[in-house]
Amino acid sequence: MIKSELVQKLADENPNLFHRDIERIVSIVFQEIENALARGERVELRGFGAFSVKRRPARIGRNPRSGEPVHIAEKYAPFFKAGKELRDRLNRRAPAAS
């Protein structure tokens, strides 16, 4: 699902709200998650999961073509850990076909 599909689904389920307001709400939520991660904070959505930032230290890699050592700078990457409710829902067994 992409952002526009999410907005459309929310608009379909909430006909009393304007489409532009739903777009703005979704954008603000995503922006706040981004801002918190940029500050190095953890964002937890109960029942869904938690977003955090992982530090990847600088290291020496290899150029696959020449084999020469290459310095790879330190990086920060977003990380998502699914919550228990989401994992349980994804791992439910489908009922056996008769």
From TrEMBL:
Keywords: DNA recombination, DNA-binding, Transcription, Transcription regulation, Translation regulation. SMART domains: BHL. It comes from the Bacteria. One of its GO terms (biological process) is regulation of translation. Belongs to the bacterial histone-like protein family. This protein is one of the two subunits of integration host factor, a specific DNA-binding protein that functions in genetic recombination as well as in transcriptional and translational control. This is Integration host factor subunit beta. It comes from Amphiplicatus metriothermophilus.
